[in-house]
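Hello K.,

You asked for the raw outputs rather than the summary table, so here they are, unedited. I folded two proteins back to back in the same session to keep the settings identical. This is the first:
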Amino acid sequence: MTRRAVVTGASSGIGEAAARALRARGWDVVGVARRADRLAVLEAETGVVAHAADLTDGDAVAALAARLDETGGVDALVHVAGGARGSDRIEAGDPEDWRWMFEANVLSAQRLVASLLPAIRRAADVSGHADLLFVTSTAAQTAYPGGGGYNAAKAGEAMLVHALRQELNGEPLRVIEIAPGMVRTEEFSLNRFGGDHVAADKLYEGVEAPLVAADVADVIAYALDAPGHVNLDLVTMRPVAQSAQHLLARGPLTTR
């Protein structure tokens, strides 16, 4: 039986890569993002069903849930949408950036769970299990200067995931967290630095083989396709050059 996943953030980066990877593995996929034009391209190329929505809008999330109920339900939520804004010290941070990060990373996750969980439960009753997967970040695990707002938002999302897993104990529902470290995508750092290409490129300067979106998508697809009794509670993944949040090798990787 073909399973159906909702993938948020599907217009670019990890979300788009996850939508493509799941389609390649035979999943039906509903791709959700704000940018309808980019979703239309993805739909034409892969067969992903496009659904344009702003997940910081409660009415938009409710409309997504209604559409899914009308068109066949959902077996898996893959929540990738979110992001960072700003790299200022806490004392200089813009409260509006912090507000957006909390809305985009934490409240969007809560809204999706509240709206989609009834359908996900129905899918589990039919197929034996269903999934809620969240892409957080190593920023949820380790603080760093200039990352306070993003650290706080992603830590909030991670705590939501941990609490949800406990609240759903006893149900055939897997709650999965994927926490990537440095991933080079076309937009994440560019958005964080307000469109400053120089600052965004400098972040990756000299780093041999940072992760790319497809690397994270492979892990997402594996987690969802694993046997139904196997739950990957937390997968922390980094490029080899990044041994810890603060320890990043710049230059060729060589043995000593």
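The second followed immediately with the same parameters:
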Amino acid sequence: MNQSEQQLRVQLAACYRLIAHFKMDDLIYNHISVRLPGPEHHFLINPYGLFFSEVTASSLIKIDLEGNALEPSDYEVNRAGFVIHSAIHAAREDAICVLHTHSDAATAVSALEEGLQPVSQFAMHFWNRLGYHAYEGVALDTDERARLVRDLGPHQVMVLRNHGILAAGRTIPEAFMLAYYFERAARIQLMAQGSGSQLLLPPEAVSEKAARQFNQCEGDIRLRGEREWPAFIRLLDNLDPSYRQ
């Protein structure tokens, strides 16, 4: 958390643009929030009404832990949607960036009884490291916060049944990569299941080995996003650098 607010604004705006670029967004809905440095428990979140592809560093709104805007904006804050984010931010010091999406493949897998399976190497990131939260309707009730925290447990990603996923990253790039890998894993699983053939799954010990390698950064593996993020920034700067404004 040695980054300035402006640096975090640019990173977070880039994250919104990347979610849109990889088609994991849902119109003006969903959120990605980041905790700002300092003891005040302030956060940045998207203006309610902009597509993710329109978000810029300056359009992000600073809010408190209850989702109240702390500075003027032409847009509202979806306070109801922040119920999910505030629960995780408040309970987990390591949850610097909380990302919630309704991406197609992830939402489809959230409705499968078996959830995400170790069908591909992408899925190994999450083997035995996923929370599952039962659908309770639109997240308007603050008493759902305790159950969200309980169901996430020590994990970084939680499947929201019949809804989508939530990723809690130690950095903004890590939160993005968690969502990206989950979506790839879910898409590949659905393709394999749709083929009609019997799924070939690795032994559990092998899945656990791969999960440990990814999550403990063994060998030359680094924190998710550390290597990839500069390339993503080059991609965005070539496509449309207006996210920096």
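The mean pLDDT is 93.

Happy to rerun anything if the numbers look odd on your end.

Regards,
P.
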